[in-house]
Fold each of these.
Amino acid sequence: MSDLEVRQLRYFVAVAEELHFGRAAARLGMAQPPLSRTIRDIERQLGVALFERTTRQVNLTAAGEVLLRDARTALEAVTAAAHRARQAGSGSPRLRVALKADVDGGLLPQILGTYGADEASLPPELVLGGFGEQPQALRDGLADVGLVLCPFDSRGLDSEPLLTEPVLVALAAADPLAARARLCLDDLADRKLPDGSPAVHGRPVEHTPQPGTTRPASNLSEIFSLVETGSIVFFAPASVARRYPRPGIAYRPVSDLPDATLAVAWPHDARSPAVAAFVRAACTVASAQHLQAEPVAPSTTT
């Protein structure tokens, strides 16, 4: 049996994720017949069926499920290898730090200062992304280390927790719920999050669009503008609420919403002294800060 090619794995993953040959072909920018032939070639090479096909639907077999898991890992490794090789070969190596703007617990300036004093440090480059994008940036080799909110997809990554703080709900100051000192998720049954999902589900850091919804607000400025109009509510760590007091927004604690933990994360196989220096700096700063969330008073802003 010959080894599978990267191209074959990409084709297989597209079909496995779409479970529709037409949509997978469109996603890959190719015609459907050659895609179908490639999948049949893969099945012949492996000697197993990867899909159960009927006139109405396409489903993965047990073998297909296993290949999908491992193919994703293999493709991530190939992508990461290319990005890391490109970075290593550049004339000015840097430490690429992935994070969501303002979601750093207020620690980033101190971390960078402490890190910069380490003899193993490299010039830092901030790789900004949306909520929850940092772990994939690390796996893809687009960043060397990251500040992430837990829980997160930790495949292929190591991490150390830095601080834990309450998650608050941001709602319009004119909202009747703003008159309460404390809320629970059931109180938010009729409210929506920025991604269009029900707030009662309590998913504070996921902001990918849900099926049938429009593009979610992409930054805090957009989110806060929508919150002020009463269009949405927003779950935010207490440090974000402290950083962005606005007269049109009320921040309230939610009794049954889990706390948010900020962690520093890096790839399992990282061997860079600069990554180790950043992790040391982050843990040192977090330990010295002893940040604890403060009680939220029932005022308009916190």
Amino acid sequence: MSLLRKSALALVIPAAAASMVTGAGSAQAAPDLYGAIAVRTKGVGAAADYRTQKEADAAAMKACGDASLCTVMARFYNECGSVAERDIAWPLGTSPNYWAGTGPTAAKAHENAMRMAGLEPISIPGVWWVAKPAFVLDTICTSNAG
């Protein structure tokens, strides 16, 4: 190998190594962000922008109030979540029914939750009936949604 080639190779190798080292951290992807919505008969708790789904679930349960009565209904990451409710009346009381939807925007999550709730069911007088038509209980998004 000639002296000129050795010199050129001696300049190229350190330059290539330097560009690999300096460029290594510049293209990091944004971290995933998680959210959840928990519900109970008389409450709702929502949480977003957590590093794990487990953390988001725990925060939503805490925000819901009495964790022993709460259930996580919506789980999502890097998007929005929504929970719809419809109340059904029975001769001995009223019970809520919940449906969850997710989407890239709050509007799409809202739409998907209502779609999951479906059409209003046909009531059977004296057995059960719709006490309150379907409505969105809560919608929340992670900060990197849409």
